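Hi there,

I know you've been waiting on this one. I reran it after we fixed the sequence typo, so this is the corrected version. Both the input and the resulting structure follow.
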Amino acid sequence: MRRIRNVCAFLLTAVTAVSLTACSPGGDSGSENADGPVTFTWWHNSTTDTRKAVWEQIAADYQAANPGVSFKIEPVQNEQFQTKIPLALQSDSPPDIYQQWGGGQGAGQLPSGKVADITEQTKPWIGTLGPVAEDWKSDGKQYGVPYAAHTVGFWYRKDIFTNAGITAPPATMDELNAAVTKLKAAGVAPIAVGGKDRWPDAFYWGYLAARHCSPEQLKKAVETVRMEDQCWVRAGQDLKAFLDTQPFQTGFVGTPAQQGAGSSAGMVANGQAAMELQGDWTPDTMASLTADKDLNSKLGWFPFPAVTGGAGAPGAVLAGGDGFSCTNRTAAACAKFLEYLVSTPVQEKLAAVGAGLPVNPAAAPALTSESLKTVFDHTQRAPFRQTYFDIALPTAVGQALNDAIANFFAGQGTPETIVEAVNQAAAGNK
């Protein structure tokens, strides 16, 4: 999970072992054979006892089905990956498997020469995962595999909407503004946002950009790392108009996104706010922040509304995913293990406990709530999938964008300065 998002208490029961056919060795000439003895050093970002137990069980099941395979598992704090991975990739002993979010961040690791090209090993099955797997590609080559997908949209309290006289989820920005007005009149914060963590702010600008910019413009900006079309400025202009309606809770700039009952997720969970623009991980986050055992039945989901005059593909989604990359020493064997992670039985177990949207569509029926099934179906039908901009762009550029948007939320800057921050960071990143 990018930035881990406090996604959920993962799988507690054993994951069914799945026997896999061998993949032919490829990539680095020093890679161990996929069927020979191998000990993986595996870095993942699940540091709580429950999450660690999930991956330990998955490793144990795989080991039982594949004699000669063993694991040395090292949980790493999510925020440490940005510094630990670059250092490890410059060393002589990088981890064999490590947490990866792809996009521009992943591409920035390739000059180390340590990240394995697993194109040949994954070619027979990677296509079944759909567009999400593209985030782990660079120049047409596969450098990792996602095990969970994520889509951002509005999670809302159906009971609060009803009490405020809102009969249907907003489908346009005008309808969203009207809902904000009704919710204020009902005495509840319309929308909660975790401005302290900054990245939740970026979802608003990112979605407005995906509504105003055509798919061609979105792709061009990511490829060239420049934002030149006026659609990018129009996204900021629409964001300014929305911010002027004061849709968020008092003190949103200092509110965390997911930590504690007073976070933006906690506010929705405890009925202090009506909705939050967040990913599919948020129902589990909210459930951990409230004593309300009926919360799940009160939550609904709707996609980010349409904008007037936008050139973006209607129904385009802002999305991401969690995955793993391999390094060269065990490339072929690692690719075989990643195939196991996307097999239907494993994906069903992960889907059943809210680990994210399954990347294997066959596992979708295992999702446990109708809302999550709605998110999955909407994502599958989406005409365009835009990866979170701070992941799609090089790391330094994505951070500059997030900072500029957060400053904009705090009343600093203009629609133009958001775009300028990206272009200036890109120039300095060359």
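Quick highlight: The chain has two domains: 38-150+319-381, 153-316+390-429.

Best,
R. S.
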